[in-house]
Each structure stands twice: as structure tokens, then as C-alpha cells.
């Protein structure tokens, strides 16, 4: 009996039957998922057990060895470690035991940090990147920041691709934005971006929109009571290289953010203004074959963009009680883009030919060799003319949001949110053609404009609770969009000097769309596993009404969107993850407008009122490694998209191509995404990210079989060298290889950059000198060639944009507190802009 008693006593000091509780944020009271919980010996602080917090910060351990007492430690990036009291050996935790983590921001000046800053973090369903590492973006927009991510590439037109797809959903501070990401990101100052999350296999609780997943931009937030005021000013130097543009580029901007936080109130305001002109040129060649008539028309001239935007934001939040909070937000803004395309068409030639004997692509090779059009066939005529084309795009925005959240106790939470947006879009295009000996005789004058007021609503109700050891999330969402448009197209009667409506292109459209969604999702974790699975049911109803002829096109669907993610910790340094998600891409009203708009002299642009949404299934497998200060990851993925939408060309007449958006077929992408952050020396950080994938399109286009593929890759890399604590030198490059399209290919595009940063902490001042798109004429950077070809046309255009741009950015913080301005963003209108 004595031996049994000793054995029981010894066992009680070695085993803890149950160690469970929660890790929460001390300020918000919300659970901190993925926090590390360690069991420490009370004698020597050695680690004798551990777990990773799961849903709502819950953790559980069993059979944890203890000796002479033990305690718990909770830790997570951005927080100070939290310790429990010391428990006697064999003791168990009290019911509802909680460890509270507090932000470590206030002690940074008192603690010497010996480790390296983590610039990328991998979670169950996302990658998180610290925006601080991308100093080339300072003073610019959020687009400049995300262009550095491994999965992201930006082309010459400013289109943002995630793993080769422009179809992704943008979120600002966790709020989905049903708008064009490129336009929204161009409006958001890079100085306001704290972190960037890439969610490639989103769970069911997220909108299913976006075949490439979700980009979530986290803006900078305050952590203490008081007021905060910060300002940033950006000045661009005069152009270095001459592109023979009519006007000198203007580049300058400023943003101001202020917050006040006291007691239950949290108020933030923001003002920003940005002028960012981009000079450039357009070098083109087109030939068409209509019947037996061959027409060739090379061109060259200005292609520049002048961009101006300004906005004001207000955010007001109140903590109604310990368990309830309310937040309201407003945004009012304007933005304008002037695109100038003043092109000289030198020596346009028409000739009758034998169609069977003409190779359209080889005619371009001959043009490159000789500098002139061919002498094929019997010449009909030649003409040199000058095209002045100005396309103006304007947008006025007024957006309001309201959010309510309540902690219902017993690990239950309710959230309600609503959004209303009023957007007015429009802007004319003037297209004038001149001929004669001095190219000043009007040959054609055209004008088209549109008025597109947009109203959008969004309502969300979300509920979460613990079911056993699993976190359960469920909710309902309603979205409604009403988007009418009046399109006026006029030709000038040059003899009578009057404008006449063109009935072929003048029309009206009304798009209505409503979406009802319900979802349910479970997630949980153990010592080595993290996992989640969910299902979203969505009803989608769309109608497109045309004025002439009076026609209505409708589409409705009831669809399921499953998702699942799992992560397995193989060791302290290595983890594996897997994920699956089904997504949808609903196109914009612009791409569904079936009557042409004059883009410029050789191009009309129109959509398709019966466009089907793209449906995508994505599977991925990955490895994540952290070795000391260095980190590595690799993710293999496969993505299949049905009813893929492509922008394609047809021949409208012998000198005009019709640019059309249409469903082509199926597109497959099989790829590998890689990333590494390395520290070769104490003062040198090397970040390399890349994506390589095989892209294939199979389908039918206007009766022709499409079957094309190629390997595509992109590389984003930066090298940072620190000279002391406050001086930093950064060299980087963004590179995108050539890519196939349904009708041709887009050429490679790359941009190197150089930055020098100097911080003055005591003066709360930071200065950044940026050399953007640097080239010095040594290489052809910041330009891209776009080529399309079919049996009856060939077109290739090289877009050459300004290089060697110098910019100075100055940031000053009036207080030592971090500011918090949660920026309200457009849900609907930006996408149409």
C-alpha cells in the first residue's frame, strides 16, 4: 500500500490530466488564434509541453509532464509574452482559464530586439507580408506595395495579376470590396498599409468572388489612448527622358491621417491628394484582310496617362459596453484619368491581293526590316493621317458603412454590417482625324460619352460559437447592384458643322444583380494540426436590359462553394499545408455593354450582355520552413477555370478592330510559388519571391478552335543593406515573362528600382529617395508589347512608358502614437471605373 501511495504521488507530479483554456487580446477581448502556449518548469523555466491556440484562441493539452510546479506562457507576434501564476505539480487549471496578450508596441524603445523582423508569416489559409520591407512603395499607392509579393505581377497597363489571374477579391481591413482592385489600390496610400494578406484558398465565410483568391490590405492602427497625427508628402522630380509628349508630367501628393482615442470613443479622419502623370509612347502596326483587300497601317505617337485623385474619410467607433461596439464610416472622393493617344499613321496602304498567298505575320517582319509597308498586290491608295484621341474617365464616390458587434458570452459572437454606395461614373472620348499636307485638315471627328450612376447595397449577419473544441461560424449575406448607363455617340457633319447621333452605337443599358448567400464553417486545432472546412450556398440573379432594341437578358444560378484547409506541424522548423476552394468571377457592367465605345482610332471596345461568370476550382499543397532568421516556402497549385473570359479582337472594317470580351472555354494553370527571406549577413536582407506556371487555354472562339499554352514566370526580389540603425539601401526588380492569350501573346515586362531611406527617430521624421523604373537607356524596361493574330488580321503594339523617375518622400509624425484610420472603400463603383 505504501508503494502504491508513493507511485500515485510520483505520477501526480509527472502528469497533468488536462491543461485547457483560451488566449485572448487584452484590448479587444477576442481570441488570438495560432498563439503559442508553452508549459514551463517552475524550477528552471525549461519547456515541458506546448500547443498552438486554435479557434477563438482555445488550447488544450494532455499528459504534460511537470516537476515541482509549472506555469504557462502565451506568445504571439506583435504581443508581449503573457505568463500565468505558478501551479503546484499535479494541479489543474481553474475553469474558463484565460491568458491575456497585450501589444508590445509601448516597450519597443526599452527592449533590445536581437532577432530579425519576420517579413512573411504563414497561417492555415493565408500568407501575411509586412509592408515595411517594401520601401520602394513609400509615397506611392498600395499597388506599389503588393507588386513585390511572390504571387503578384503588374503589367504595363497597370493590371494586377495573382498567379497569372486578374480575377481576385480585394479586402480592406477584412471588408470585401466588390470593385476593381487596381483602381481601389491606386487610391490607397502605401504609407497607410501595414500588412498584406494573400488568401489563396479562402474559407466559406468569405465571398466566393475571385478565382485567384483574396488580397486583404490591413491599414495601420493605433494601440493607445490619445491623439495621433501623421503627414506624408511626395514630390516627383522633372522628367529625365523625353517622349515628345505635349505636356510635362506632374507628380506630387500628400496624405494626412489623424486619430483620437479616449475611453469608449475612437475617431479617425483622413485626407489625401495625388497627382501622378506618366509620359510614354505607343509604337504600333496593324494589317487586315477583308475579302481580297489588304490594308497595312503602322503608327507611332504619344500614349500618356495623367491621374488625379483626392478624397476625405471619417471613421467613428464607440464601445457601447464591455460586450458591444458600433462603428460608422464615410468616404467621399473624386478621381480623374486623362489618357492621351495622339498617333501618326504614316503611309497607310490598301491593295488587292490573293488572300491564299498572304502571310499576315510575315508582313510585319518585312516592315521591321525595311521600315515601310509591303508592296504586295495591286495598290489601291496610300494615306498619311494624324489622330488626336483623348479619353477622360471620371468618378465621384459617396460611401457609408455601419458595423455592430456583440459578445454574447460563452464564446459566442454576433456581427452585423451594412454598406451603401452611390457612384457616378462617366467621361467623354474625343477622336479627331486630320489629313492634308500639314495634317491639319479635319477628316473625321467623333465624340462619345456616358453617364453611369451606380447604387449598391451590402448586408451581412455573422455568428460564431464554440461547439465542443471546434469553432463554428455561420452567416447570411445580401448584395444588390443597380447600374444604369446612357451612352451617346456622335459624328460631326463636317460640311454642315453639326453633330449627328450615331444610332449604331448610341444606346442605354440597365444592369440589376442581387446575390443571397448562406455559409457554415468549422475550424479547430490540436498540438500538430490546424484545419477548417465549410460550405457556402449562393443564389445569383442578374438581368441586363437594353434600350435599342428593347431586350432583356437574364441569368440566375444556385451554386455550392465548398472549401477546406489543413496545416500540419512536422517539426519546430517545418510545416506542411493543403487547401481547396471553389470560386466565381462575376464580370463588370462595362464588359457586358454590347454596343461599341471608341477607344481610339483603330479600336472599338464592347462587351457581351450574355457573358457567363467564370467558375474556378483550386487545389494547393505547400511546405513552410523557418530556420533561425531565415524563412522559406514553396506551394504547388492547380487551378481550372471554366467559361474563362478573354479580351479578343475581330475586324470591324479595314482600319478598325473591334475589341470584345467573350467566354472562350477552359483555362488550366499548374504552377509553383516560391519565396525566401534570407540574412546572408547581420546587415543584409535578401528577399526573393517567384511564381512559375504552365497556362493553357482550350475552347472555341467565333467558330475557331483555341488550343494554346506556354510556361510563364514572374520574379520579385529585393536586396536591403543597412548602414547603421537608420540608413537603408534597397535594390529590387519586378519581372514578368511573356504570356500567351487566346489570340496571341503579351510580351515580357520588368522594372528595377533603387531606394535610399533615412530615418530620424528623435525628430519623428523619415526621408525616402526613390529611383523608379531605372534604366539609363541600358535596357528596355517599363515597356510591353501586346500581339494578337487571326486569319484576317495581325496587330502588335509596343507600349513604352517613362523610365528613370525620381521621387522624394518625406513623412512626419506629430505624435509618438500610432494613428488609426480605417479607410472605407468602394464596394461597387471602383470596379466599373
Automatic annotation (TrEMBL):
Looking at the UniProt record for this protein, which Gene Ontology cellular component terms does it annotate, in alphabetical order?
cell outer membrane
Q: Which residues form the Outer membrane protein beta-barrel domain?
A: 411-812
Q: Where in the cell is it found?
A: Cell outer membrane
Keyword Acetylation in annotation: no
Q: Which UniProt keywords apply?
A: Cell outer membrane, Membrane, Receptor, Signal
Please list which residues make up the signal peptide: 1-17
Q: What is this protein called?
A: Outer membrane receptor proteins, mostly Fe transport
Any keyword Transmembrane?
A: no
Q: Which organism is it from?
A: Neolewinella agarilytica
InterPro entries annotated for this entry?
Beta-barrel_TonB_sf (IPR036942), CarboxyPept-like_regulatory (IPR008969), OMP_b-brl_3 (IPR041700), Plug_dom (IPR012910), Plug_dom_sf (IPR037066)
TonB-dependent receptor plug domain location: 127-213
